[in-house]
Amino acid sequence: MVEEDSYAKAIDVFVEATATRDPERRATLLSRAVAADVVFWGPLGRGVGREAVEDFITEVVHGHPSGPGRLVRTTRVDAPGEWARFGWRYETATGDTILSGMDVVHVTARGDIDEIIVFAGSLT
């Protein structure tokens, strides 16, 4: 349970970073939650470093054709060891769900995320 709580803190700071439109605040939040050399596996491919995560947030989350949206964690954090997963949804400013999925993250002993794997959409 302790792992899940500490992992949830890092994940929630990451989710908060996706919601902010202020680049300085986003960078500060990401520096608290994500390792500088994070490996990010997103729907558009693989990127390395916080800049890759910031670019994804700017281009995909805030640049979505439906307008800027936000990522919302929809499940508890399940952490069987150093890996954790959580459900999410991407919603419009009015709260309509555009997409949902699950992320799997690797959390270091320092408590920051050094790998993020995004699974968008259902497996049906």
TrEMBL record:
SUPFAM superfamilies membership: NTF2-like (SSF54427)
InterPro entries on file: NTF2-like_dom_sf, SnoaL-like
Domain of life: Bacteria
Gene3D superfamilies (alphabetical): 3.10.450.50
SnoaL-like domain ranges (all copies): 14-114
Short name of any one Pfam family annotated for the protein: SnoaL_2
Stated name of the protein: SnoaL-like domain-containing protein
Lineage summary: Bacteria, Bacillati, Actinomycetota, Actinomycetes, Streptosporangiales
